[in-house]
Input
Amino acid sequence: MNTFLAILRKDLLLELRGGRSTTALVSLALLVLVVLTFALDRTAGDGPANAAGALWIALVFAGMLGATRVMVAEHENGCLRALLLSPVDRAILYAAKLTASATFMIVAAAAASTMAMLFFNLEFSGSLATLAVALTLGALGFSALATLLAAISIRARGGELLLPLLIVPLFVPALIAGVKASAAALAGAPLAAAREWVGILIAFDILFVTAGYLLFEHVVGEE
Amino acid sequence: MAAAVIETHALGKTFGLTPVLQETEFKLSPGRGAIVIGGNGCGKSTLLAIFAGLVAPSEGYALVFGEDTRRFGPRYRRRIGMMSHQSFLYPDLTARENLEFYARLYQVSAPREVAESWLARLGLADWAGDRVRTFSRGMEQRLAAARAMIHGPSLLLLDEPFAGLDPDGVARVGTLIKSALEEGCSIVATAHTPFGVEGAEFEVYEIVRGQVVPCQEEDAPRRGRLRSLLRPRPS
Output
């Protein structure tokens, strides 16, 4: 637990100093939302669905840029090698990286959802809890996937190109469920109305957090 | 007789189609120091990376503390300290934060105090609160030496430990290496040419055609991989 906290603390400290991940996440989310606000018809009565779609597109794009930073940053000065050389269990390393990445994404998701509601002229309602649940689960699933795949791609030539090609197709089930759950939440529906979609998000999270936990050791293992 | 700290058998490493190490036999007894010299690209860093368990051999095997490096677990990794070409330091953390972080990873007790004492030993106490990004190459190399030794390893793998150091830095890192040997630590260091640490004894090896052999001409400058390949293969 001490080593988990040491790595997490270090990642959060580096982010507070540099602010690269969160800044990239929020900036890109803002950009995508602005473009989609103008591209989509906000008077057609399907504002919540449009807002949910725009919000998740923004999060996926921003996540690819920012959520993988926690692994990519370890490449500078060979720090990943130092972590692998240390007695830290690979699973703990994965858990710490996942927690840091998910934290950055949740911060970005909170900012992006606020912007989406403002841009799409939606009212704040009691369904914010449903939205928060959907976004948190989505951010966790995306981070689980991104952390695992970033560990693969940083060691591959042209890995930065490889990463989105791997992440997006695998994230599609969670993306669909997230959009549907968020649309229901933004339309004011209670959590029960989005139960099935939230269930898919939970299943996705369990699958990829477990996969990452088990596979990370093999992914970052010896060269 | 105590078991060897490092023992290799027919060790080989190939990157793509390029063989770097071939049928290497190397043995290091506990508490002994060895210097492996050779030119650029001859396989010195690869050899250390294999000993550290970071790179898997393509052929043969390396036993470190009696364990195959392919199966290294946390128990074995804890006993190794490594200085690499890369400093393994976070540029946006301060010198103190870097050492404290690594002390925590190795579960060193009182990590902050230990970090402070290492900074003092390496003459970096005045820069403890400065970010590593602002350090010169030599200061970063000193800090990297402290990072490698902060947990009191039983085996030190030092890849060109004096690279970029000024005379004071060479003296301080040399003193650390000597102290580590005196405390029973085994050391494998690499360099382009043989070096000496006052009061410490090292066996000198060189890499010739991918094999680690005892060095015949300790004072001769090495002229890179081409020279190594042109030399006759040892029988």
Summary: Chain B touches chain A at residues 49, 52-56, 69-70, 74-75, 77-78, 80, 82, 84-93, 97, 101-102, 104-107, 147 (CB under 8 Å).
